[in-house]
Design a protein that fits this description.
single chain; 355 residues; alpha+beta; Rossmann fold; OB fold (Dihydrolipoamide Acetyltransferase, E2P); 2 domains; six-stranded mixed beta sheet; five-stranded antiparallel beta sheet; 20 strands; binds adenosine-5'-triphosphate; ABC_transporter-like_CS
Amino acid sequence: MSAIQISHLSKSFTTQPVLNDVSLHIRHGEFVAVLGPSGCGKTTLLRTIAGFEPVNSGSITVGDRLFSSPDIHVAPEKRDLGIVFQNYALWPHMSVEENVAYSLKVAGMDRNERRTRTKDALALVGLADYATRRPSDLSGGQRQRVALARCLVTRPGVVLLDEPLANLDVHLRATMEEEFSRFHQHTGATLLYITHDQQEAMAIADRVVVMNEGKVMQFATPQTLYREPANEMVATFIDDGRVIPAKNIQRAESGIVLAEILGLRCRLRASPEQMAVASAQVSVHATGLRFADTGEQGIAARITRVIYRGGYRQIDVEPHSDPELRLSLHSPAEKTWQAGDNVTFMIADGWIIPQ
Ligand SMILES: Nc1ncnc2c1ncn2[C@@H]1O[C@H](COP(=O)(O)OP(=O)(O)OP(=O)(O)O)[C@@H](O)[C@H]1O
């Protein structure tokens, strides 16, 4: 079993705390992405799991093996983890198959077994026909796939990936996302995937860890992060979400409240435990706002900017009653709005951030 149990993990470099009481339970076979602003500690988390960094307090256990605690530090090569980095450092003088087979050779595996495993690994990443090529004769995406094959040939139960697609262009990234999903399905390995790219994380992971300043802000499915953020940081970080103040929050039914936002009474989603309170913050996304129908009482606002986004237009507005607030709506691309137009909008969907 390859579940990863991280308990109250803290790590400092000299005096600077970089990981602060991080606890995560990653299930066996789960695909987990770690997301957060630059410098929040993502790579340090991965490096402590890999064994490249000792920990100050807390523990890391994989399956039933305790890897790290203040008193115990299992060496990286004894952890049996697969690791794929952004700079995939292939041996330039070896062919693709030699690169992939190298670790098996070092481990003393016999030639036939090595051949079979290498062939299987290359087939899995779609490079069966490239076995004899040199890395210099491959594209960036193909090289990254060799790095992936090199990792999976050892059949690790846990694979750590640090921004493996960061050096690839947009189209290749999309192809490689599919590749990772396929790889995950075939191997059943537990995957921990660090990325800057939230669309990538949301598209491929079962669950996503959002980190900020060395702490776990929320560990949940992509849908939950988007619909039910645990705090303001997650609400504004995911998909350019916005936070609006609300007053006079009253329970309507389990999971639904009525609240006043910018002078308008709105129906909002909330945790079933949400109590009646005088004020709260509401998480909204552009998809949860809509223009008011004719005759419908909405929130009056001025359009500040119109951005053509291909299939739709992004309409940025500032409400008359709170011009500091910047909200965005989506509108069909053919609709012609202008900056300076006055509009009214409704809050069709919003979430009361738990206090
Ligand atoms: N070896 C080190 N010595 C001192 N400080 C370090 C060391 N490694 C990382 N840090 C600091 O720890 C903090 C977290 O770094 P880390 O690389 O884990 O962040 P990250 O979330 O992966 O960032 P990015 O997304 O920019 O790669 C940063 O402030 C960084 O400067």
